[in-house]
Design goal:
The chain is α/β, with parallel strands linked by helices. It is built from 22 helices and 9 strands. It has helices spanning about 10-20, 30-35, 40-55, 60-70, 75-80, 85-100, 105, 125-130, 145, 165-170, 175-185, 200-205, 210-220, 235-245, 255-265, 270-285, 300, 310-320, 340, 345-360, 370-385, 395-400; strands at about 150, 160-165, 190, 230, 265, 295, 325, 365-370, 390. It is globular, with a radius of gyration of 21 Å. It starts with 10 loop residues before the first helix and ends with a helix. The protein binds iron/sulfur cluster (2 copies). One iron/sulfur cluster (SF4) binds near residues 22, 42 and 43.
């Protein structure tokens, strides 16, 4: 296995060398917690990659299976005293395994004929088709097709470009509608161009870097310019802010454009709470949520973008004392982009732990900032028979603003 990343930089070998093999990462890994096996935790995965890089292990199906067993939840990275970025090591290895094992066969199949043609062939949603019961209901026409490209308030203030991602476009259009309502009520002009595509998070997670790179190019072009880009999907936001610049090597002119896009991309919660400001938001609240509500931290928002307070501040304005915390609010829901498809049994175990925590909290509603988590949590509540509604933070805010 090569220890250069997709750009040929030595960052992966530096990450491997930086691991002190202390094992602290085992205490925070949701997969290790289920099995207690060394190979499931970050230290074990790093050891496997190190052995592969030294030629002691072949790039085989067995190695692939071991490295698929990672949620890319970033819990190990956040808690490692040496800052080892295990997700980078795992992703670099998956990219090499994807090519070596010709995994296009596994993850690249086109949609079955029964699915709407409206869903683009390279959409991350296609990964879920391999999961049988994991197939989400696809809305047709999509959110972007239903709405005009541009939404203008009576007295337009800021123009914001809206990156929807596939899940809002095809599975949760109501989240997109709530974004439009809130931002237009705040005198913003919202542009949701249909030339945007999938963020590529599922492609990166499965190792299909060729697809990820072409999707990044498409989105960088679609969001060219100087306007801020708002995102209501934690996984998509993480891609635009952190992954796109790393997809292109130093000196590649596309990297500059990716960095420009990253610098003006905001999760909707940070845009609202920090750029528009809580004074303005609070002044618009008309009817607070009256039932106990809790918040689930999406990994790609809380750890992936270090955004924990902004959504809670918005929800506090919308719910007051009805906003409650759960003990495991920061625990991954088990979705992990392609993890629910590649490791469905462990995904279900982690999801059960999450759902039990939500039930214990007594919350009637769970708000979160990622449509991928929304889908996973909804499924978990349904399977468990738990009467808990799963919503996006922006939907709760829109309702409390009387929109
Ligand atoms: S990844 Fe970090 S926490 Fe885990 S064994 Fe290596 S140094 Fe220790
Ligand atoms: S990213 Fe998450 S699942 Fe993967 S090794 Fe780290 S803690 Fe475990």
């Amino acid at each position: 296995m090569k220890t250069t990343d997709e750009n040929g930089s030595k960052s992966v070998s530096a990450e491997i060398d930086n691991c002190a093999k202390c094992g602290s990462c085992r205490s925070v890994c949701p997969v290790f917690a289920e099995y207690g096996l060394e190979k499931k935790a970050a230290r074990g995965k790093i050891a496997l990659c190190q052995a592969a890089s030294e030629g002691a292990l072949p790039l085989s199906e067995g190695l692939d299976e071991a490295l698929e067993d990672c949620l890319l939840c970033l819990a190990c990275t956040e808690n490692c005293s040496r800052g080892v970025q295990t997700h980078k090591i795992v992703k670099a290895a998956r990219a090499q395994l994807f090519r070596k094992l010709a995994k296009k066969e596994k993850y690249g199949a086109p949609f079955p004929a029964a699915l709407p043609e409206a869903v683009p062939e390279r959409s991350g949603l296609r990964y879920f088709l391999h999961g049988g019961e994991n197939i989400p209901p696809i809305r047709c026409p999509s959110f972007r097709k239903t709405h005009a490209e541009s939404f203008q308030a009576a007295e337009p203030g800021d123009t914001v470009l809206f990156f929807t991602g596939c899940f809002i476009d095809h599975v949760f259009p109501a989240v997109g509608e709530a974004v439009l309502k809130v931002f237009t009520a705040l005198q913003c002009r919202v542009v949701a161009t249909d030339s945007q595509g999938c963020c590529g998070a599922s492609a990166v997670a499965s190792g299909d870097m060729e697809t990820a790179r072409s999707l990044a190019v498409e989105n960088i072009e679609a969001f060219d310019g100087n306007h801020p880009v708002i995102v209501a999907c934690a996984s998509g936001g993480r891609m635009l802010k952190f992954e796109y610049p790393e997809i292109f090597g130093e000196g590649d002119p596309r990297r500059k454009k990716a960095e420009s896009l990253a610098a003006r991309t905001f999760d909707i919660s940070e845009y609202l709470a920090e750029r528009i400001g809580m004074q303005v938001i609070s002044s618009r609240i008309k009817d607070r949520c009256r039932q106990p509500l809790t918040y689930h931290d999406p990994c790609q928002l809380s750890r992936g973008q270090k955004i924990r307070n902004a959504p809670r501040t918005l929800l506090e304005a919308a719910c007051g004392e009805n906003l409650i915390e759960t003990r495991l609010s920061n625990l991954c829901c088990g979705s992990g982009m392609v993890y629910g498809v590649s490791c469905p049994e462990t995904s279900k175990k982690i999801l059960s732990k999450k759902i039990e925590d939500l039930i214990r909290s007594g919350a009637k509603t769970v708000a979160t900032g990622c449509p991928v988590c929304m889908r996973q949590l909804s499924k978990g509540c349904r399977d468990r028979g738990a009467n808990i509604e799963i919503r996006h933070t922006i939907e709760i805010l829109a309702e409390s603003m009387g929109l």
